[in-house]
């Protein structure tokens, strides 16, 4: 008898569950038929059509597909939350088995016509007839159109590769003016609950605001470029080429490799300029990129180094039968004065170190030896072209090294100022 009783209870529960499921489905079908039969998708859901319909907007960013600053293209994947209240779609949940919400195909009810105001190429209309709209018993309607959107975005690459770009989606009510739709914001920032990180760009911030003149809503997003790849593959080789350029004056003049070395480095910088030009937009607004300016400066410096190298080789290969002119003699006298001043300072330091209590200086003999050595040089009136070229190389090393240090410091200071 106990087994029979349990079986009866089990069958009763199963029948009640099946009845409840059947009843819920039938109530949902009845509610769906009621809501879709007498609803008109082209008439705003207001009792008084002189009253604008309040439409709220929110954007969920899912993925940053591409931010192509060269072509000014901004591509994202995401979906909007668009909500409003339809006063014609209300019901009492208790009359429909406590059904408090239902999904209705978007083609069977009114929804705002929306257009992306800054498309990259073709016009983007937010329609998606195959999507559904969730309607609640109080008439609240929630629509979630999702897609991949391509917008135009004017890039500012002034501080590439340490730049940040601010792009936006401009959503504009289409075929509706401010007297018909009142645009409101559900959230003042983009929702990142479904966002996946991009390997090239870091999400920084966002801002959502309305524009009264067009009755549109702007979803503005800021992304920061990850510079590590470009630092290793572009910035570091550029600086290294500049350092190598100076060593052209260290190569022996008789080796015959100076001109070839300087031309190779000049062409390398030109190749880097081509690579950078292909990666950046063809515009100088608001200003040229810092990398482009640095490459241009390095190219000019490299060209000047090549000219100086050729000049030095011309002087080096002049025969001693051609006497040095007055300019070059004055140039070499400056060198001798410089060496004598340095020698005097060195001797003074040694004399101070070697002085003993009785006042005798141990470096007197060394001074006499240096005087004899340098005295012979000073008495020599002949100046060879190789001597002139050797001193020129030293001057060029100091001069161009200073120029490169100043150029690199200016580049990094400009980058730091732009980041801050």
UniProtKB/TrEMBL annotation:
Claim: GTP-binding is one of the keywords in the record: no
Domain of life: Eukaryota
Keywords per UniProt: Membrane, Signal, Transmembrane, Transmembrane helix
GO cellular component: membrane
GO molecular function: extracellular ligand-gated monoatomic ion channel activity; transmembrane signaling receptor activity
Residues annotated as domain Neurotransmitter-gated ion-channel ligand-binding: 29-227
Endoplasmic reticulum in keyword set: no
Matches recorded under CDD domains: LGIC_ECD_cation, LGIC_TM_cation
UniProt domain Neurotransmitter-gated ion-channel transmembrane: residue ranges: 234-352
Signal peptide: 1-22
SUPFAM superfamilies: Neurotransmitter-gated ion-channel transmembrane pore, Nicotinic receptor ligand binding domain-like
Topological relation to the membrane, as annotated: Multi-pass membrane protein
Compartments it resides in: Membrane
InterPro entries: Neur_chan_lig-bd, Neur_chan_lig-bd_sf, Neur_channel, Neuro-gated_channel_TM_sf, Neuro_actylchol_rec, Neurotrans-gated_channel_TM
Main localisation: membrane
Residue spans crossing the bilayer: 229-252, 259-277, 297-315, 396-419
PANTHER family listed in its UniProt record: NEUROTRANSMITTER GATED ION CHANNEL
Protein name (Swiss-Prot/TrEMBL): CHRNN
Organism: Mytilus coruscus
């Amino acid at each position: 008898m106990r087994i029979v009783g349990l079986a009866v209870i089990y069958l009763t529960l199963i029948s009640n569950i099946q009845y409840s499921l059947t009843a819920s489905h039938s109530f949902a079908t009845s509610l769906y038929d009621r809501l879709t039969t007498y609803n008109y998708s082209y008439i705003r859901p207001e009792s008084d059509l002189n009253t604008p319909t309040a439409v709220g907007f929110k954007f969920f960013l899912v993925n940053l597909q591409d931010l192509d600053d060269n072509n000014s293209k901004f591509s994202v994947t995401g979906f909007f939350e668009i909500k409003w209240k339809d006063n014609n779609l209300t019901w009492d949940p208790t009359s429909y088995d406590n059904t408090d919400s239902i999904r209705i195909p978007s083609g069977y009810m009114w929804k705002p016509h929306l257009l992306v105001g800054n498309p990259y190429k073709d016009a983007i209309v937010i329609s998606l007839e195959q999507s559904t709209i969730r309607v609640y018993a109080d008439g609240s309607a929630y629509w979630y159109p999702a897609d991949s959107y391509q917008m135009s975005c004017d890039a500012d690459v002034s501080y590439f590769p340490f730049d940040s770009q601010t792009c936006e989606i401009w959503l504009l009510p289409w075929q509706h003016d401010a007297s018909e739709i009142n645009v409101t914001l559900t959230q003042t920032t983009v929702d990142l609950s479904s966002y996946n990180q991009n390997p090239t760009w870091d999400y920084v911030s966002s801002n959502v605001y309305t524009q009264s003149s067009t009755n549109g809503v702007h979803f503005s997003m800021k992304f920061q470029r990850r510079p590590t790849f470009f630092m290793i593959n572009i910035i570091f080789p550029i600086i290294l080429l500049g350092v190598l350029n100076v060593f052209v004056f260290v190569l022996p003049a008789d080796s015959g490799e100076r001109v070839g070395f300087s031309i190779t480095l000049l062409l390398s910088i030109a190749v880097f300029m081509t690579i950078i030009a292909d990666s950046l937009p063809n515009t100088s607004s608001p200003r040229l990129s810092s990398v482009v300016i640095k490459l241009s400066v390095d190219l000019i410096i490299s060209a000047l180094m090549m000219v100086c190298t050729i000049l030095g080789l011309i002087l080096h290969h002049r025969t001693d039968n051609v006497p040095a002119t007055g300019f070059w003699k004055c140039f070499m006298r400056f060198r001798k004065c410089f060496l004598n001043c340095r020698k005097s300072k060195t001797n003074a330091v040694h004399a101070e170190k070697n002085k003993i209590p009785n006042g005798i200086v141990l470096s007197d003999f060394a001074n006499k030896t240096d005087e004899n050595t340098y005295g012979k040089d000073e008495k020599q009136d002949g100046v060879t072209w190789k001597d002139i070229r050797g001193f020129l190389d030293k001057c060029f090393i100091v001069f161009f090294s200073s120029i490169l240090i100043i150029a690199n410091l200016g580049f990094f200071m400009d980058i730091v100022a732009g980041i801050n």
